[in-house]
Structures are given as C-alpha cells and as structure tokens.
Amino acid sequence: MRKVSIFGATGSIGQSTLDLIKRAPDEYKVVALTGSSNIKQLAADAKTLNAEIAVTADESRLGDLRDALRGTDIIAAAGQNAITEAAHRPADWIMSAIVGAAGLAPGMAALAQGSTLALANKESLVCAGKLLLDTAQTHGATILPVDSEHSAVFQALVGEDMAAVERIIITASGGAFRDWPLEDLENATLAQASSHPNWDMGQRITIDSASMFNKAMEVIETHEFFHVDPKAIEVLVHPQSMIHALVGFNDGALMAHVGPPDMRHAIGYALHHPARRHLPVERLDLAKIGTFEFRAPDESRWPALRLAYQVMARGGLSGAVFNAAKETALDGFIAGQIKFTQMSDVVTATLEQLDVADSHIDATMTLDNVLEMDRIARFQARSIIEKRAG
Ligand code: NAD
Ligand code: MG
C-alpha cells in the first residue's frame, strides 16, 4: 500500500484528492491529514480513511478535534509546528494543498524525507522556488506540479527536449470580471469577486483569479519550475478554461493540453505519475462545445500580471515579498479595508518600499530568510493598508 498524506485536506484541492483516494481505499494507507477550522470534515475524513494523525492549524480547536476523534487511535494535534512535524512522518506521496505561505515549511519537510510532493501550493514556489527545487534534488525527492496549467505543461513536455522549447503559454479564464467595464472594477464586492465562471475553488484563489494575481503567481511558478526565461512565458485569456496551457517548440509546433476544468485531472496525474489511470472526469465533446476563444490579457484590467515580470526580473527574495504583500492585500479586501483595485496598489507599493529600504531581498534563500522576508513584507503591506484605510 502507498503511504499518502494530504496537507490542506479540508480545502477544495484536499477534498478532490480525498475523492480519488476514497475510490481506491485498498491502495492507500493515509498517514496525515491536516486542516484548520473545519474540524468536522477533518475528523470525518480521518475516521473514514483511518489516518494515523489529524492536525488542525488552529490551536484553539485542539479540544474539539480530540473530542471528534475520541474512541479511535488517531492522534490529534494542533498548530503550525505540529503540521510541519506531521510532514516528517514517512509517506511516499504528499499532497501540498494548504493555501498561502503556510504551505512552505511542511512542503520543505516532506521533501527532506525524499517523498514525492504533489504541489498545489503555488505560494511556496513563488516565495522559495529555488530552495524547494534544491531541497528536492539534495534528498532525491520529486516535485510534481498540480496547478492545472503546470500539470498541462509538464504533460506536454513528456519526451521532449527543453532546448527545443521556445515559449510556454498559460491560459487564464479571466475570472469574475473579465467582461466588466473597467470603471466598475473599483466597486466590485467581495461576493462578486468570490464567484468564478468555470472553476470551483477556495475563496482566496477565486478572488486571485478575478484580479489575475493567481495568473501572476502562475507565471512566476512557470519560471521557477520549468527554468524558462520570463520573456518566453505568455498569458492568454481563454474564457472556456479547457485548454490549460500550450508549449511552443522551435519547429513552430504548439502542443496544447485540453481537458475539462476539473482539478481531479491534475491531481490524478500527479497521484499515478508516471502512469495514466482512469479518472472520473468529464470527457469533452468538442463538437458540442464548438468554439474556443482567445484574447490577449489587458494590463489595465489586470495590473498584477506586470508585477509578476517585475518580480522575476528582480529575483532574490522578491517573490516572497510579492506573495506576502498579495496575501495581506487579499486579507484587506476580504475584511473590507481596501477596494478590489487597491490590492495591486498595495503590492506595488510594498515591492517598491522594500526594494529601496531593505537589503533582505538580496539575502541568501534559506527557509529562515524567506520566512523573515515574508514577515517583514506582511508588516509593510499592513501599514500601507492602514494608511489607506485611515
Ligand atoms: P482552500 O481554501 O479550499 O483550502 C485551503 C486548505 O488549507 C484548507 O484545508 C485549510 O484548512 C488549510 N489552511 C488554511 N490556512 C492554513 C494555515 N494558515 N495553516 C495550515 N493550513 C491552512 O484552498 P484551495 O482552493 O484548495 O487551494 C489550496 C492551494 O492549492 C492554494 O495554494 C491554491 O493556490 C492552490 N490551487 C488551488 C486550485 C483549485 O482549483 N482550488 C488550483 C490550483 C492551485
Ligand atoms: Mg491554475
């Protein structure tokens, strides 16, 4: 039996992963499941799958988790350190589906034991791509991309020589405000930003899709994971979300990955890699769909995209600043402190201020330095938000 752990098990990616695992319970031994506030879901899944340990990020909920697991021999634990400790438990395959920079330390712990890390948590690649890849190499661990665009690129590259790759095109649905008049964006509400036309995802990534911060993160993720020049990475708006990415080769060929917008495809590909196995996803009827549309992304609508290229050009720990400022700006929007369009202003200002004021950006990329940069950037972004709100 393959030993598997799912970090962020109660979220959208975590639940899709468990859906696949529950369909073949005899093939997997579940080691660790983690969540945060949804104790009921965490405990129910831990019991169904007879996990070794269930961990909540929220220390105040440890009692609730213990109560929910009473009568079983499943270990209950709480807190960020307990999550990282759970990632040290031997497992063959580990899903990294915590949202935010909180996914970085457990991902590093999983790699340090030489496991296969299925990486949905894009924030860790943006903050510390080189560190993650170097750690994987040092410990003989494997990182498999789970973000749909990166899984698509990974699949299009099977058997290919990277030297023949001219460009990588990742697609974007355009999110909730793709067709809104530009002048209305300023007054977009939280509810409006939290609904996605095609994908059913967690709230934070859904809002990031509307602002295209999600795509900006994915551009950086592409650069870090596939080692391609930023100039060779393009974003293409494709409202149907059925072509997930295209790889352009030096002979002019474009290899596209086409599939329904269902994350169980990318998760299943990483779960069974290098094999392909039957997956319970819709089979596309292209004749019925009829038309695929494409548009160039409009930077005045999605300023986040420009920031991604700025971060790649700057290098160092600027990815950690970008991510922390983005997460803080998103918190500010969710809390009603700033408007939708001010999120990119906060990230721009944080990047500018820290680049001038802080030599930390050029510090060596260690886990401690990345986490310290993350802390500094959150503090800076919060003070920018407070000034704007006040
Ligand atoms: P989600 O909000 O639905 O779930 C997040 C999970 O992380 C939950 O289990 C939650 O309990 C846990 N969590 C939240 N804060 C935490 C913290 N501080 N410490 C530890 N655990 C914490 O998110 P999601 O949509 O499943 O996305 C998960 C990750 O996968 C994100 O990095 C996202 O960008 C990425 N991703 C998601 C999709 C998608 O379709 N949902 C697609 C591609 C990539
Ligand atoms: Mg994606």
Account of the protein in words:
This protein is an alpha/beta fold and about 400 residues long. The protein folds into three domains: about 1-145, Rossmann fold; about 150-255 and about 285-290, no CATH class; about 315-390, Rna Polymerase Sigma Factor, Chain: A (Orthogonal Bundle), CATH 1.10.1740.10. The chain is built from 16 helices and eleven strands. The chain has helices at about 10-20, 40-50, 60-70, 80-85, 105-110, 120-140, 150-155, 190-195, 205-210, 215-225, 265-270, 285-290, 305-315, 320-335, 340-355, 365-390; strands at about 1-5, 30-35, 55, 75-80, 95, 115-120, 140-145, 165-170, 235, 245-250, 255-260. The strands form two sheets. It has a seven-stranded parallel β-sheet, sandwiched between helices. It has a four-stranded mixed β-sheet with strand order 9-8-10-11, with helices on one face. Helix 4 packs parallel to helix 5 and helix 14 packs parallel to helix 16. It is globular. The model has no long low-confidence stretch (mean pLDDT about 95). Nicotinamide-adenine-dinucleotide binds near residues 57, 99, 102, 199 and 201.
Précis, in short:
The chain has helices spanning 12-22, 39-48, 62-69, 80-87, 104-112, 122-138, 148-156, 190-193, 203-211, 213-226, 264-272, 286-289, 304-314, 318-334, 342-357, 367-389, and strands at residues 2-7, 28-35, 53-56, 75-78, 93-96, 116-119, 142-145, 165-172, 233-237, 243-249, 254-258. With 390 residues, it is an alpha/beta fold.
